[in-house]
Predict the structure.
Amino acid sequence: MANSTVPPSLACGLINAANRYLSAEPFRFQVVATGLVLRLRQVWMLLFVLYLLSSLQRFLAADPNGKVTCDQETPGPGALFWLRQYPDGKVSLQCELSQRYLGGAEDNVTCFAQTVSEGEKWSLQLAQHPNGHMLNPGKQRYMRCDQQTGHMRCDRDLPWGPEAVITLHFDLKEKKYGLRSGAGSLLAADGSLQAELSPQTLYSLELRGGLLALRDADGRYLTGREGTVKTFKTDKPGRDELFALEPSAAQVSLRTFAGGRFVCCRPGERGRVGNLHCILDCPHMLNMASGVWH
């Protein structure tokens, strides 16, 4: 059975209205918004509830006068923020101490705005490998691509094989996400698989306690509650509309040089080298992380 543990943190980048990333500089632990691409200095760990920890292991904080710092090794009163999410997929960060919003550009990042404008909105880009497995906690099943029917389904107890590897594609221009199968097709809102990026294959990202919800242009959420994964109209995403992105362990098949047969295990036997036989004409997969054969 799948593991439904909610991650305690989420690594991401924060992009402002000028398409620059919030960055933590090692010199005096300064905070600027000058990054052009997502690198280590632009990665922030969102610790629920909500602290922002930089790659330098220092906490972002703001004082009552709006000055932003990132030199605290332990979070003080000004390091707690509220994450506000908007229908366009952007977020704002409100300091709990001062009730002011984080914003600014270049080397003038402050937390002094009393209301939210475009200058105080940020787009989230997840800072993890885009290839992974999508777990639906509502069904306790993993998503897979069914090439025969041309749909994606949430029906796997274990994420195994290339059909269970999902690429979370981030479109930098639209600041939205698409779900791409191992064969390269993209999941559309109506549940079909399409070859090209389009408005129907892009979704706004929402965070719900460390889990992900994906919302289409009509305000409908991707769900695993039906036979195929497609969008569903609901006022608030429930467990069927939430997904956890898990790392994808490397999987390989091994083939003998002389006979050209694939290595596998006897039926009912797992993981022992003494039980391995070279008898198959089709590949069986090995999880490189766990050493378990299938």
Remarks:
- The radius of gyration is 22 Å.
